Amino acid sequence: MSGHEVILRGLTPLVQAEILFGLQQRCGRDVITHLYQLRVFARSLRSHGVATIVDVDASTLPRHIRPLVQELQAAVSESTTGPDSEQHKDIWNMRVFGHGRKRLDFTVVAQPWLRSAAKHWVLEELPLRRGPNVVAALRDHVNSVAALGNSLRLHRPDDGMDPAALGRADIVAFLNRLRHQESAGDLSAHQRRKTAQHAALVLRECRALGLARPGRPLAGLSQEFTFRRHDLPPVPKDDAPGRALPDSVLAALIAALDRLEAAGGRDIRVAVQLLIDTGRRPAEICNLPWDCLDQDRDGKYALIYTDFKNNRVGRRLPIGDATAELLIEHKQRVRDRFPDTPLAELALLPRATRNRAGTQPIHDDTLASAHRRWVDDLEPLHRPDGSEFDKSAVFLYAYRHSFAQRHADAGTPVDVLRELMGHRSIAVTQGYYSVTATRTRKAVDALAAVQFNGRGEHVWSQARLLLESEHQRLAVGQVAVPFGICTEPSNVQAGGGSCPFRFRCLGCGHFRSDPSYLPELRDYLDTLLRDRERVRAASELDDWARDEAVPSEAEITRLRQLIRRVQHDLDALTEDERGQIEEAVRVVRRTRQTVHLGLPTTGPQTLDPHLETHR
Q1: Are the C-beta atoms of 120 and 211 separated by less than 8 Å?
Q2: Which residues does 609 contact at the CB level (< 8 Å), separation at least 6?
Q3: pTM, to two decimals
Q4: What are the φ and ψ backbone dihedral angles of 302, each rounded to 5 degrees?
């Protein structure tokens, strides 16, 4: 026997064919087979005289050859079975159904009738679902059904084996068990809610499939064995900032992308950067084809991707030039690595192993692992107020939440954002707007104590008593001017287009301003000074016209006094108080809409460095 040969003599022709077929399948997946492992397996087969390798108990073989044996057995089993025969087993090989090297175990469901119903439900769901995480989603549902079965087994004398004996009390016992597990710390609130929801869904849809008819798995099951609408634990409501990453945390992560590339490679870095820039789901980015970039006749770029969750192919997402340049550069890198692979088969983010042609994309689990190692190795991350941010909250899906939150904060209409994110329910999209409302309310609270009228006088000496009405006014819409807000009733009623005082805001008792308007106040002062000099220098104006057109010294003086008063109050704050005001200014300016009310308009300005960090 030479170092490059494996002797199959002495094995039956069927076993020899099975080994060769299994090796052929492994080679097709770019898997390396070590010949010494194959020799050990061949000697074991000869010594036991087996008729087929499927009958070999891999657990009795040396540990170092078990993976090889199991893969050969799986290849042979898959070649001799199909969906019709696989569905009668209690452990399904999901490759038979086109879902890769995964297993779906129904033995976790204790009752045969409930297990059979779960199989029927999964069989119905398989053709309807798309994407790389189908098996994991179905496994969650099967495990939820198993939790219901375990509850029946624990509290019923017949272990829940007779469906005809079940009733409403058994559902209540299941819900109480979930609540007990949550209180004991065995389940999170999210897991408790998801388990109850999935079990209710499967039971409801099994009835709809007719499985309760005579001769079917749920035959005899009482209608009382059902979940009511209000049985499921409600989604908790709180004022938490959501799962979007704070701007300071996201900026720190972007600055550290070079370290991610050094540790995980260029493909990992590009994947994470695309997640940040586009807000797509991890599986959508990982499975991008090489030809995923399109440019319209106006030169604008769009990302072409597949929404696996909703089975929508060829989705288009407008992207910025910087993201497009990243894609163009990376596409060329990938093409240089795999010059002979047809472009239609090439992956944008090819995996590093078992992928000689570059056709196999990186798996989202691989990306998540590399991302987690990178985040954990970074220095502590901090919120805008300087407090440390929990690194466990930095996961791949957090970039999607951050993308959606930025759009919600910027005032993107909810129906547009829903379509952009691919949400099935608009309630999911609206959650980002509730976070925006909470942040805005807190920002109003912070700025209320430093609000001034046109004379530079505090107008919120009793702010705590008036905050609620101020929030209500903000909710229904208040009239804005380029450097403050107007509360004059007739102007508010007219939507800001009917000021009875010709927009003399600085001399009006209905005018309000705060530190978030400092850039606009300074810009307006510069505008007044420029206009004054230009009008004074105009030789073609009559004296009366010049007197009417030149900005008044009183208005300029009043504006300077207001700016100085606002700045003086900011300088008098402690460092912590100033940080709160700076954060409030960022939130309010992000959600503020540009308005034009007939006054000299102000162009887009960057906030004073004293108030906002440049982004």
Answers
A1: yes
A2: none
A3: 0.62
A4: -140, 140
Other Cβ atoms closer than 10 A to 526: 11
Backbone angles phi, psi at 52, to 5 degrees: -155, 145
Helix (H) or strand (E) holding 28: helix 13-28
Rounded Cα distance between 554 and 533, Å, is 16
Both ends of the chain: CA-CA distance in Å? 68
What CA–CA distance (Å, rounded) separates 111 from 218? 11
The residues with which 264 forms a beta bridge, in sequence order, are none
Quick count: other Cβ atoms within 10 Å of Cβ 484?
23
Question: 3-class SS at 558?
Answer: helix
Alpha helices (runs of H) in 279-413, residue ranges in sequence order: 282-286, 321-337, 364-377, 396-409
Q: What is the pLDDT of residue 461?
A: 44
Q: Are 75 and 26 in contact (CB under 8 A)?
A: yes
Local mean pLDDT, 10-residue blocks, the chain (615 residues): 74 89 83 86 86 84 86 79 82 82 89 95 88 86 96 94 94 94 90 93 94 93 90 61 81 94 94 94 94 90 89 88 94 94 94 88 92 95 88 92 84 82 80 62 61 63 45 51 71 66 74 79 84 82 79 84 81 75 71 43 37 36
Residue with tokens 């994991």: 136
Question: 317 pairs with which residues across the strands?
Answer: 303
Residue with tokens 């069989």: 123
Half-sphere exposure of residue 514, counting CA atoms within 13 Å on the CB side?
22
Query: The tokens of 553 are what?
Result: 């010294």
Sign of CA dihedral 580, 417, 433, 487: positive
Amino acid at 592: R
Q: Is 272 helix (H, G, I), strand (E, B) or coil?
A: helix
Q: DSSP character for 360?
A: S
Instruction: Please tell me the distance from the alpha carbon of residue 225 to that of residue 207, in angstroms, as a whole number.
Output: 11
Vertex 110: Cα angle to 198 and 154 (nearest 5): 90
Q: Kindly list the distances between the CA atom of residue 554 and the CA atoms of 152, 200, 572, in Å, as whole numbers in the listed order.
A: 82, 71, 27
**What is the C-alpha to C-alpha distance for residues 68 and 505, in angstroms, rounded to an integer?**
81
Specify the length of the chain in residues. 615
Among 518, 435, 440, residue whose Cα is nearest residue 475: 440
Q: Contact, 278 vs 323, CB < 8 A?
A: yes
CA–CA gap between residue 147 and residue 141 (Å, rounded): 10
Q: Which of 387, 110, 345 is nearest to 241 (CA)?
A: 387
Q: Which long-range contacts (CB under 8 A, 24 or more apart) does 102-109 make?
A: 102/135, 104/135, 104/138, 104/139, 104/142, 105/139, 105/142, 106/142, 108/142, 108/143, 108/146, 109/142, 109/145, 109/146, 109/149
Furthest CA-CA distance within the chain: 118
Q: What is the predicted pLDDT for the residue at 462?
A: 43
